[in-house]
Amino acid sequence: MAVAGILFRSDHMQKFTREAYENLLAASGPVNEANLFILLGKVQDTFGYIPRDVLRDLAVRCGVPDARIYGALTSYRDFKLGPEE
Amino acid sequence: MKLLTRRVGTYNPLDLNSYEKLGGMKGLRQAVEVGPEKTIERIKQSGLTGRGGAGFPTGAKWESAAKQKHRPKYFICNADEGELGTFKDKVLLDGDPWSILEAILIGAYVTGAEHAYIYIRGEYEDTFRLWEKIVSKAREAGLIGSNVLGSNFSVGLYVAKGRGLYIAGEEFALIASLETRRPMSSPKPPYPTEKGLFGKPTVINNVETLANVPVILEEGAERYRRLGTPDEPGTRLFSLSGDVKKPGVCELEIGSATLRELIGQFGEGTISGRQIKAVQPGGGTSALLGKDSLDCILATEAIKKAGSQIGTAGVIVYEEPQSAVEIVRKLLAYYSNESCGRCAPCRIGTVKMQEIVENISEGKGQEDDILRLREIANAAVKVSTCGLGQAFPLPVLSALELFPKDFESVVGKVRA
User: Fold this and answer.
1) CB contact set of B382 (below 8 Å; sequence gap of 6+)
2) Biggest alpha carbon distance in chain B?
3) How far apart are CA B3 and CA B19, in angstroms?
4) Domains of chain B
5) CB B249 within 8 A of CB B359
6) What does the pLDDT read at residue B413?
């Protein structure tokens, strides 16, 4: 099922830095609840996982409880909360 | 018959001009010219019904959303094509993306939606990347943003990618997904047109449904209505897969061919030339049809009469001599993994039914297994809130009905 995701991760991964993350947000449309799911997807596709700091940061900026984001992310196969071993 | 696929693959998808040269964007211009009410009236006259599985009349859906007073409104194109054996939407999304974009804009315009989304299946990675480019081209061309084509209509379009969940294609689960909540179905009513994304009026249409919209506006509702059957005008894209020589997507006028013709002519028969054992005419959650039903016409009513559902028109063919137990086991293994967990008969039932069928296929079946399968299946059909829970038992129930001998050989006599 997640084959496409794996291919994507291997050929496009970037190392996570605060700067790279801010650049990604600047290029990815509004930082609000309506765009949050898409932003999380961009973070996943760029860095290969959603760093905890990003989860908290986006929660504050979008005004969404971070527990809710955690609950949502963990129901998908293609979101990871840590770097692949 | 080429109607929805008439432009597929005939132009460079990154070039809006070549699409317009082929007659594209006429529908949108016409809609902006005549206004929302008349456009909705035309869609209603055309008799267009949803192609995503449920078959709800599109015009009525749009009218209901257009009437809502709450703001903002949302318009979602459901491209999370997850049903087993269904791959028709990808053909349209890749081959003729601008007409889908045009239809999204028409839909957003006539229902008064300020924000539109397209939710693309995660496995369609290339399609997703193509659509990100297309949306930025459309923004440059002034088709997305404020005052589209000089009208007072403004719309934003987001491209979202699914993350590998079957259930996210169900409309309320899709809404929850975009809201960054756990993707789960909800009981209806209220329908999304009343309370959808972020509690606001929302229209959700399947890709193939939307592909019909520019066609209807270009050709006129009356000419469109002459195609297909009186209850179900137009054409449909059939995704043919399973044990056929030539799988693929085939556009047919509704009611113009039988299952046997589709499989024999387009699919060139079964892969090994053996007889057909069973067919699922509407994706993995539709009831099995035996070889006696092969002369059934490919239209919603006819398939229903034969005892199955046309659903997403994903035709899956199973040839002899595989056992119905095996067919059902594979389907249950998939659906038990994909249940969202909201309704107990689906959450627990998929797993229990899978266990029972696995036992049967390993030769460890017990006599009351069939009775238990039927009990759980019937409960799930009655109690579940969404299409997954209501429909995953159908192939199991139909297999018990059509091929009792396959089960009997392992568990003893199947009682009615």
Assistant:
1) B345
2) 72
3) 15
4) 16-225 (3.40.50.11540), 235-319 (3.10.20.600), 324-411 (1.20.1440.230)
5) no
6) 57
- Note the pTM of the prediction, 2 decimals: 0.94
CA distance B325 to chain A (A): 24
CA–CA separation, B336 vs B351, rounded Å?
A: 5
Given CA atoms B284, B288, B294, B295 in this order, what sign does their dihedral have?
Answer: negative
Task: Answer yes or no: do B122 and A78 touch at CB < 8 A.
Answer: yes
Q: d(Cα B121, Cα B94) in Å, to the nearest integer?
A: 13
How far is Cα B350 from Cα B66, in angstroms, rounded to an integer? 38
Average pLDDT over residues A64-83: 95
Q: What is the mean pLDDT of each run of 10 residues along chain B (416 residues)?
A: 94 96 95 96 97 93 97 97 96 97 98 97 96 96 93 95 95 97 93 96 98 96 95 96 97 96 97 96 96 96 96 96 94 95 94 95 88 96 94 97 89 58
CA distances from B261 to B179, B265, B314, B402 (A): 44, 5, 15, 22
Q: Is there a contact between B159 and A77 if contact means CB atoms under 8 Å apart?
A: no
* Nearest partner of A75 among B392, B159, B340, B162, judged by Cα: B340
Enter the tokens of residue B31.
Answer: 């809609």
CB contact under 8 A, B164 and A7: no
The interface predicted TM-score (ipTM) is 0.92
- Out of B161, B164, B180, name the one closest to residue A36 (CB): B180
Whether residue A78 and residue B125 make contact (CB cut-off 8 A), yes or no, is: no
Hey, what are B399's tokens?
């297999």
Per-domain boundaries in chain A: 3-73
- Residue B132, chain A, CB below 8 Å: the answer is no
Cα distance from N-terminal residue to C-terminal residue, chain A:
20
Q: Which residues of B touch A2 (CB under 8 A)?
A: 164
Residues 6+ apart with CB under 8 A from B228: B234, B235, B253, B254, B255, B256, B299
Please tell me which of the candidates B123, B163, B178 has its beta carbon nearest to residue A76. Answer: B163
> Does the distance separating the beta carbons of A40 and B183 come in below 8 Å?
no
Q: What is the distance in angstroms between the Cα of A71 and the nearest Cα belonging to chain B?
A: 6
Which chain B residue shows the shortest CA-CA distance from A1?
B164
